[in-house]
Automatic annotation (TrEMBL), chains A, B:
Mg(2+) 3 binds at D29, D74, D211. ATP binds at G121, D122, R148, S213. The keyword rRNA-binding does not apply. Substrate binds at H53, D263, W318. It comes from Humitalea rosea. The keyword Ion transport does not apply. Catalyzes the ATP-dependent phosphorylation of thiamine-monophosphate (TMP) to form thiamine-pyrophosphate (TPP), the active form of vitamin B1. Residues 152-298 form the PurM-like C-terminal domain. Mg(2+) 5 binds at D214. Mg(2+) 4 binds at D29, D74. This is Thiamine-monophosphate kinase.
């Protein structure tokens, strides 16, 4: 035997060009990396399944980028700087080589945009839906990582960007809602924007932070449980994009979907009163909006309308089981 | 909303007890870890799909342990010391809680045996076969990692333990071969033995190393390509366990399956002539056997019988595509 068989040729053609120095050209059993001296490592892993986390007919390019970005969003939530990633791909056996080329091309774009390299991974075949898993490494100053557990009663609740676009974008792609002219909502579903610079800027300002991936209300509940506080938010303060606002204006019931739908990949954080100027000074193109406050009491999320009446939501957010 | 839904309860019940200090009780978006000062990090990731990498009716306990051990084997091949791991699990939606408890119990056993903790991960549902992915972290002295690219013409080819048990064990479990009385072969398929101590002992002795996962002949071909040498091995020197030897004695055609089958998770390495005493002195319970040598020439693997005649093999090893 002298030629590498299909699996290894696939890796050489499409994934080797993505490897950084630590990846050893994907020729070895493992990557070797000297971590930045004097920094703590930050590590997260997320998986995506075709038909569950992305639509099977989404463009290959954005599937790779979304996989990387949902993990980058976890680094953003900790205030970390990206370093590299490992990826395992379970592809259907009849996958098209051009599909993998586009998938890898998307990853190459985002590697450049966010400053990280592929370190290693595994490529296998599956008789089921495409299943992708990515582990990301970042770094942060020791003790500086933003955690979920630091919110205190009296802290204000803030969120970056806009909420609900991802879930409405999924609905647009599934034909349930009318698309906006610019394709903004569908693009937000396919290509979330990890708030890395903003998250790094929150270090020293925010008392607690996390990213919103499973629905604002449910994720706020996680933050409440980790911090031992309750939360009250005002639905009308939750920032909607113009495209989401237009859909909600036409069908006010969609507001609940925005608050619970998930796939936002925005940062949800707690800051003490008086932090507004510091938050606004972080700059970049990420806006932040104050949507409520934490109170003493057992972990619980209350959503109120502008008159203070509680809004009952059908569910808090997404759960796989 | 005040209660965590199913997915988060599952994680809390089964996976939180596996988390080490860096895992932050799996309550945050990411793990935070201070890497051992003055050491290089070693990182690998492997995926397993039900029906492809393990049998759907394998015990849950050994599935978790195999997932961890195939990754530990990659660390062993680099001479690294285990540090921690992240895991993503795509489970069928109707999975039994007792199954996950046994799966996590197996991981707990191996965490203790091999000295590492869970750092984080993701749990999702899949409509397809169970798909598991694990990323492992280890560490090694800077510059000491064993690589595939260092073999030179004249170096001897060595392999740890015994070859072929995993593939024969799969055949036993599928009813194709008679089981050995002790159940050794099936156990070797379900529970490979990562050669961590032996791999660490090879640092400074071996010129190149890798683990045998996709078949001895194919993996030796990878080592040849990475090193720019050719290899000659003598089939009769390849170490077989007593159970494998008994099957091969009954059907000599099974020797080819042993040489190409995969799922061995033994170490294949190159050492200069005269290294035998140092190799034997590594000790532990891992034996090593010299099976051939490297020659100058384009990358190629030749398998010979004891009379020097070349043995033609139907294929070199396993490829997913």
């Amino acid at each position: 035997m002298s030629e590498a068989p299909g699996e290894f040729g696939l890796i050489a053609r499409h994934f080797r060009p993505l490897a950084g120095p630590g990846g050893l050209s994907l020729l070895d059993d493992a990557a070797v990396l000297d971590p930045p001296p004097g920094r703590s490592l930050v590590l997260a892993a997320d998986a995506m399944v075709a038909g569950v986390h992305f639509l099977p007919d989404d463009p290959a390019e954005t599937i790779g980028r979304k996989l990387l970005r949902v993990n980058l969003s976890d680094l953003a939530a900790m205030g970390a700087v990206p370093l590299g990633y490992l990826m395992t791909t379970a592809f259907p056996r009849d996958i098209d080589d051009a599909w993998i080329a586009a998938f890898a091309g998307g990853l190459a774009l985002d590697q450049q945009e966010f400053g990280l390299d592929l370190l290693g991974g595994d490529t296998v075949a599956t008789p089921g839906p495409m299943t992708l898993s990515l582990t990301i490494l970042g770094h942060v100053a020791p003790g500086a990582a933003l955690r979920r557990g630091g919110a205190r009663a009296g802290d204000e609740i803030w969120v970056s960007g806009s909420i609900g676009d991802g879930m409405l974008g999924l609905g647009v792609l599934q034909g349930r809602f009318a698309p906006d002219a610019a394709g903004f909502l569908a693009a937000r579903y396919r290509l979330p924007q990890p708030r890395l610079g903003f998250g790094q800027g929150l270090v020293g300002i925010a008392r607690a932070a996390m990213d919103v991936s499973d629905g604002l209300v449910q994720d706020l509940g996680h933050l409440c449980r980790a911090s031992g506080v309750a939360a009250e938010i005002e639905a009308g303060l939750v920032p909607l994009s113009p495209a989401a606002g237009a859909l909600v204006a036409g069908d006010p019931a969609l507001l609940a979907l925005c608050l619970t739908g998930g796939d936002d990949y925005e940062l949800l954080f707690a800051a003490p009163p008086g932090a507004e100027a510091a938050i606004r000074a972080i700059g970049g193109d990420t806006a932040a909006t104050r949507i409520g406050h934490f109170t003493a009491g057992p972990p619980h999320v209350t959503v109120r309308d502008k008159n203070g009446a509680e809004i009952a939501l059908p569910r808090g957010g997404w759960s796989h089981f």
